[in-house]
Amino acid sequence: MNKKKWLGVAMTAALAIGSLAGCSSDKEATSSKGGKDKITYWAPFSGADGPRMKNIVANYNKSQDKYEVDLQIVPQTDYYKTVDLAFSGQKSAPDLMIMHTDQLTNYAEKNLLKDMTDTIEKNGVKAEDYSDTAWQAGSIGGKQYSIPLDIHPLVLYYNKDMFKAAGLDPEKAPTNREEFVAAAKKLTDESKKQYGFVVPTLWPNQFIYPTVFFQNGGELMKDGKPNYNSPEGVEALTFLSELVTKEKVSPANVQQDGEVTLFLQGKNAMQLNGPWMMEQWDKAGINYGVAPVPQLGTKQQAVYANGHNFVIPASVKDSKKLEGISDFLKYAADNTMEWAKSGQAPASKAIYEQNDEFKKMVQQPQVAKQFEYAKFAPRVANWGQLSEPLWAEVNLALLGKKDPQKALDDANKKAEQLVQK
Amino acid sequence: MQSKASKTVVIIVAILIGLIFIVPIIWMLATSFKTDQEAFTAGLKWLPEVFTLENYQYALGGNADTPVLQWMGNSLFVGIVGTLIVLVVDTLAAYGLARLDVPFKKFFIAMFIGSLTIPWVITFLPLYMEFNTFGLLDTYAVLILPYSANAFGVFLLYQYFRGFPKELEEAAFLDGANKWQVFTKVVLPSARPVIWTLAIFTFMGIYNDFLWPLVTTNSPGMRTITTGIAVMQQGSFVSSPAKLMALTSIATIPAVLLFVIGQRSFIKGVTQSGIK
Amino acid sequence: MNTTWKSKLTSSLFVLPYLILFTVFLLIPIVYGAWMSLHNWDLLNPVHEFVGLKNYAKIFDPKSYVHNLFFEGLKNTLKFVVFSVPLLVVVGLGLALLINSLPGRLKGLFRTVYFIPYSVSVSVVAIIWLWLLDTNSGLINNYLTGLNLPAIPWLTDMPWAWVSIVIATLWWTIGFNMVIFINALNDVSEELYEAGSLDGANRWQRLIYITLPSIKPTMLFVLITSTIASFNIYGQPYLMTRGGPGTETKVLLMNIVDEAFKQRQLGNAAAMSLLMALLMIIISVAQLRISNRKE
Predict the structure, then answer these.
(1) Helix (H) or strand (E) holding A190
(2) Cβ B44–C19 below 8 Å, yes or no?
(3) Hey, of A79, A203, A255, A268, which one would you mutate to test binding to chain C, going by the most C CBs within 10 A of its CB?
(4) Which domains does chain B show, CATH number per domain?
(5) Strand partners of residue A268
(6) C-chain residues within 8 Å CB-CB of A87?
(7) Angle formed by the axes of helices B192-208 and B68-99, nearest 10°
(8) Mean pLDDT of chain B
(9) Pairing between β-strand A139-140 and β-strand A143-144 as defined by DSSP bridges
(10) What is the gyration radius of the CA atoms in chain A, in angstroms?
(11) Do residues B163 and C62 make contact, with C-beta atoms less than 8 angstroms apart?
């Protein structure tokens, strides 16, 4: 870091005088420190989860003296930009990195990730040790490209004090659509500007809308084509928008993070968000409860999730390094209890099925309850791009500017253009 | 010429408009001393019920995510070094083109002035890739060097030097001075006001730029204050208005103070910038 | 002969440093950018296939998504230009006139006050205004509901999202235009005004027939610089509305950045940048031409 900075200053000075010499000569070699083999490891944990991962790495480094894992945290907002540059070969890539589940297909199909099958066999990491949902996400075209760290599905947060005040049992969260709507209505009091479920119009609809969609038995992509305007999709969006217009359990025109703000103010009784919000509620001192997402759809229980996974860039070939990576991954699998403290539920069965400390936690077991029926983003390479129009149209529909059917028709049309390119 | 009544009306209007410019800043300061909880529910209460410095402690607390002081340092460093480079190369080039026997002079002048019409967006992506190729993204170099190609300063100084009386220089040449000596001893001192103008414009341009530093840096320690705050707003400070306001206050107060102190020179600079 | 050769060499050394910077950071990028725009340039793909003008053809092909990205972004950018530029010019001039009609000692004070926001950066501007305009806890909506008026969805509904962005932009940058106008006004010769009052012209007539024609070059300067600045809008919608509602405030530059860094399609993005630049050049030249013709 410091070295880089001074390299920058030196470059500036050098160029200012008009000399272009001396560009890339003094790049440090990533050599070892005290005879240990160094493994660089990138992760996007710039939030509350950062210190947890740092602890795991530090403990690992202390536990043995053969390898030295060097964790570098790249902020979430810049993570994939940085990763892309590394893969494009113009910046040195790490030896090990974290990748979100919805990104795996994209990088795997471009042959940028290493098939980990051998690595896995050697170090005794087994598929059976992990949640099947999480493990399967990394298996693409018969090869295993990742080892899961966690699954983070959508969860239901609710304000216990508001439940009590409305005469509801604060230990019993709604479990289906009827209970959910009934509770939301009871919790709403227009005169006090207090609402049962404030419907977000932007983020985290990337989680909420697919959840209801899946619960209706629908699929976002079908036969490689976008399927946004299928009846299941339209029903899901109609349901969400009617929470505002018909059931009136939410104000209209909710702005970015408006539902979070109102939840913090005690004016929003329930909200659907990711497990990473836990720390913020704790800090704000809200008396909240956590539960699996109720079945808001008509067909089945399901929940949209994303996950963190360990992957190795295809360019890593050094067998010593690979051994070190395997060793670290094995350690991490057994020691992710630390990771759970950030609110996440690790995908390792040793933790979520067998660890007593874990089971005593408040939020994390609720998250793990959803592992079985959690579903990830469709497995297409450019899902990020294909889904952009969907979020924009969902936004318009929830703001009451477009009829759900029309919005989803438009989103589908745009996504089809993207498929054709 | 004006009646007293109309004068009073003008002053009242001026004060009302002044409030529009000041109130947002005062509201920012007021919020920064509240707790996050109170900030949400404050309604129209301007003064905090519980006066707290907690937000400032948090923002300045050496948190690895929010090295605010380092960001301000980066912004200052980048702005000052960038400005110095521009001043040095632009004065040299402008003097050369205005007075010396530079070959292909007309071609260079036309090219430099023509480049003023080229919007910045055209070089945005290729410059990014260029710095990436040399592994210089996320360094001070990428935050400083691209601004040095702007021909505005060359144009401004070129016009000034052309209007500068030749006699002074000729006298110096007769005394046996060489080009360099004439430039540093005779020409430069006279150009001080124009150089000052250029310095202010360049500094403000670099200091306030947003998209370029946002895209080209990613380690928390390399951010400028502008991009650092933006990242916080979208990251860990979402829905923590009071903490966010403390952060923006810390960034704003020194800038405003410097500006109020330096604005006379700034305004003088604008006058002399050849904007007729 | 030898001395002129030597002299030319030493003279060239004066221009050389700038020429190098100019070449490395402007000329080469321009050529490189044009080169990129002729390729199918996926950041993750090491092979960049030459496709000729296909990226440009896609921008003009209504069936392609790049067409939508470019023209919808352009439409939103143009909307902002149309909403903001007249205000930036007229309000800037109005404030300058107001300041100039203040008694001497107050002039400096108010000039400073109106100019203060110019010293803060765009992210601070956005954050302050987001907080003032917050639908639920914002100061402005609190005052509105206090007066029994309906709360306004400043950031999620049209046309309010544009109103908010324009207000924040005016608040931030108007001081600069104002200062330029104040200088121009001070340069208008007193004699003209004296002649005007002798002819019995009232204030309004003096403004129309004396002030405005005298500061025409400044008006043009402010008009062109404001237009270019408004074309380059990015920070305000990026931070305040994130392009919403839907994509109604998603401006062209946001689409270019997304296409380049989210979708990794640098070829398309480079073609879009080039067209955007071309358009900006045409518009500035047109503004110059039109105002010169009137003369």
Answers:
(1) none
(2) no
(3) A255
(4) 53-275 (1.10.3720.10)
(5) A195
(6) 44
(7) 140
(8) 86
(9) antiparallel
(10) 23
(11) no
- Tokens representing B215? 């895209």
Mean pLDDT of A232-254: 94
Q: Which two tokens stand for residue C180?
A: 């330029």
All structural domains of chain C with their residue ranges: 72-293
Asked if C17 and A18 come within 8 Å (Cβ–Cβ), the reply is yes
The answer to whether domain C72-293 has CATH 1.10.3720.10 is yes
**Cross-chain Cβ contact B233/C127 below 8 Å:** yes
- CB-CB under 8 Å, B218 with A81: yes
Residue-wise pLDDT tens digits, B86-99: 999 999 999 999 99
The ipTM of this complex is 0.88
What global pTM score does this model have? 0.84
Identify the DSSP state of A78: G
- Neighbouring-strand partners of residue A288: A159
Cβ pair B22:C113 closer than 8 A? yes
Summarize pLDDT for A131-187 with one digit per residue, the tens: 999 999 999 888 999 999 999 999 999 999 999 999 999 999 999 999 999 999 999
Q: Counting Cβ atoms within 10 Å, is residue B106 exposed (0-12), middle (13-18) or buried (19+)?
A: exposed
Residues of A with CB below 8 A from C46's CB?
88-89
Report all structural domains of chain A as residue ranges with CATH numbers, in order of start: 3-152+306-375 (3.40.190.10), 155-304+378-420 (3.40.190.10)
Nearest CA in chain C to B86: C18
**Both structure tokens of A370:** 């959803």
